[in-house]
Design a protein that fits this description.
Number of strands: 16
Membrane topology: Multi-pass membrane protein
Protein name: Sensor histidine kinase
Keywords: Cell membrane, Kinase, Membrane, Phosphoprotein, Transferase, Transmembrane, Transmembrane helix
Radius of gyration: 54 Å
Strand order of the largest sheet: 2-1-5-4-3
Shape: elongated
Subcellular location: Cell membrane
Helix content: 40-55%
Strand content: 15-25%
GO molecular function: kinase activity
Length: about 600
């Protein structure tokens, strides 16, 4: 029962149209999954981005706290050392009769290099100043008399109004801002009363100015990805915000800035104050902005639905139209109308089906034509077969007749003691037999030498003393190497016909086989008429791009034909060099790799 029920369900699906099936696939496999997946995905991405951003802000806060604490600790170390320096205290407590005594005492105090060693060794410290209520002092060299103007200053009043012996104070020095274009007027100083050695006769105050530009630069280098604010009593002391870093203007107030819900605040104790480290992260990326914006989210949903809908419509139209076209043509086949589909078929499976249908129709047409013409074609085929057999018999009779005739002439010459004529006829028969009965196209060098020697003997018989020849093989193992049949003979023939025969004087043809640098060198040299520069250039150019179609450009195709056959067997690793000079002769050098010549 269950298999029958499953078959019925499958048949129901088979009865639906392709368009309906595609729409069902779109709704249940695209529309609903896209909506559900997007909602879950975007919520998950938003949470991950927020967590990552918070982690980044926390790490940034840790680095800022470490750098700030390091800068302040170094400045405090300088202050503490100077605070407990007995030599320095005696120098400030002493009274001096005149400026000369003061300067002697000053240089004597500096002999320990206390100020130099602990002031200039820390980049975070910009200036160390001692304010001393001693009338015998001379202003200069980090020591200034404590007068009424200094007592009226903002920082001195702040120190006097606190119960703490040491404080950190930030203020704006308008006078320095007008005098210094580079440093500006913003100052952050560690100020303390010098009373380590108990109650003294002279009031002394130590003021250590932090290097504001250096410390502020470290916050600028913290990098992008958020805004950093170091706040003291509502004043923004340090920041990586360019608008907050105008050193020639007073400190900005944090209360003047808008609150940011994403900012992170941490309190850090600094000497007598509690500074705040405030980090504001950048806005989250486009995914979170898109989730937070209803308009963008609606646009995203529309795109997610519109694009799949458009694709489903285009694909369904492509499938339904072409399947319907094939169905209509198959209906025509039922009526014995074999029409080929001429509309574009495409390259997918339906396109392949269309091409198969067209091939089927064409084959049916051809089979119909074969039925009517089969008998006539069979008769023509039988006739062609008989003619081919007749030509094959003729091609076998003629060479046998020629070789038998040459053998008869040779035997009669032997009977008449004409040994020279008999030998020439024997060599001629050898060449003709190798030319007609081609057999294997590769022969040994020894066989090729025998062909060349037979040919040169025949030519010497023709020319007499006008032609002399020399054949030389360097090593015995060269004789067993294999090269294409009659290639060397072709070059030798060209040397005899175009070199020696065309000249009026005697000539020499030299053929040598040698091994040089892992190559077989075959040299064919003649002392004939040679070639002019134009013919030699044309022959060399054709060897750069050899082809059978270009043979018609040469008056003599033997050399090029042999070169093409060498390239067929030895690829481009075979090299043929031709050197020729008019009325002095021609030299052809063939270079074949020994490995290939040995393998054949």
């Amino acid at each position: 029962m269950k298999p029958k029920l499953a078959c019925k369900r499958i048949q129901v699906l088979d009865d639906w149209s392709l368009r309906t099936k595609l729409y069902i696939l779109f709704i249940f496999c695209v529309l609903i999954p896209v909506l559900a997946t997007n909602a879950v995905f975007y919520q998950s991405i938003k949470g991950q981005i927020e967590a990552k951003e918070q982690s980044r802000i926390n790490e940034m806060q840790q680095r800022i706290r470490f750098n700030l604490r390091n800068s302040l600790d170094n400045s405090l170390y300088v202050s503490n050392f100077l605070y407990t320096d007995a030599t320095l205290n005696r120098f400030m407590e002493s009274k001096y009769r005149n400026q000369e005594d003061y300067y002697f005492a000053y240089y004597d105090m500096l002999s320990g290099n206390n100020l130099v060693r602990y002031y200039y060794s820390y980049q975070q410290v910009n200036q160390v100043t001692f304010y001393v209520d001693n009338d015998t002092f001379v202003n200069g060299g980090n020591f200034i008399k404590l007068n009424d103007d200094i007592r009226k200053s903002e920082w001195y009043q702040a120190l006097m109004n606190t119960d703490d012996q040491m404080m950190i104070y930030s203020y704006f020095d308008k006078q320095q801002a007008e005098m210094s274009q580079s440093q500006g007027g913003r100052k952050v100083s560690i100020i303390r009363k010098l009373n380590y050695f108990g109650k003294q006769q002279v009031e002394k105050v130590l003021k250590v100015d932090l290097d504001y530009a250096f410390i502020n630069k470290s916050f600028k280098n913290e990098g992008a990805g958020g805004k950093i604010y170091i706040v003291s009593d509502d004043r923004i002391i340090f920041s990586n915000d360019a608008q907050m870093n105008q050193a020639r203007k007073p400190f900005n107030l944090m209360s003047s800035m808008e609150l940011d819900a994403s900012q992170s605040t941490e309190s850090i104790p600094v000497v007598s104050e509690n500074w705040q480290i405030i980090v504001r992260g950048e806005k989250l990326d486009f995914l979170t902005e898109m989730i937070d914006s209803r308009a963008n989210l609606l646009l995203l949903i529309i795109l997610n639905l519109l694009v799949p809908t458009l694709l489903i419509w285009l694909i369904s139209r492509s499938l339904v139209d072409r399947v319907g076209r094939i169905a209509r043509h198959l209906d025509q086949v039922k009526q014995e109308k074999f029409e080929v589909i001429t509309e574009p078929a495409g390259k997918d499976e339906i396109g392949s089906l269309t091409h198969s249908y067209n091939m089927m129709v064409v084959k049916i047409r051809n089979l119909i034509e074969i039925v009517f013409k089969g008998q006539v074609e069979r008769q023509a085929l039988e006739l062609s077969k008989k003619q081919a057999e007749l030509k094959a018999l003729q091609s076998q009779v003629n060479p046998h007749f020629m070789f038998n005739t040459l053998e008869t002439i040779r035997m009669r010459s032997l009977i008449k003691d004409e040994h020279e004529t008999s030998d020439i006829i024997q060599k001629l028969a050898l060449l003709l037999r190798q030319t007609i009965n081609w057999g294997n196209d590769l022969v040994t060098v020894q066989d090729e030498i025998r062909f060349v020697e037979s040919y040169l003997v025949i030519q010497q018989y023709r020319f007499g003393e006008k032609l002399q020849f020399v054949i030389h093989a360097g090593d015995e193992d060269i004789l067993e190497m294999r090269i294409p049949k009659l290639t060397v003979l072709t070059f030798v023939e060209n040397a005899c016909i175009h070199g020696i025969e065309g000249g009026s004087s005697d000539g020499v043809v030299e053929v040598s086989f040698q091994k040089q640098q892992e190559q077989l060198h075959i040299v064919i040299r003649d002392t004939g008429v040679g070639m002019d520069e134009d013919k030699l250039s044309m022959l060399r150019n054709m060897m750069l791009d050899p082809s059978l179609e270009r043979l018609s450009e040469l008056s003599s195709i033997g050399v090029m034909n042999a070169f093409i056959r060498l390239r067929m067997y030895f690829d481009e690793r075979v090299q043929v060099h031709i050197v020729s000079e008019r009325y002095k002769g021609t030299t052809i050098r063939i270079e074949i790799p020994l490995v290939q010549a040995s393998q054949g």
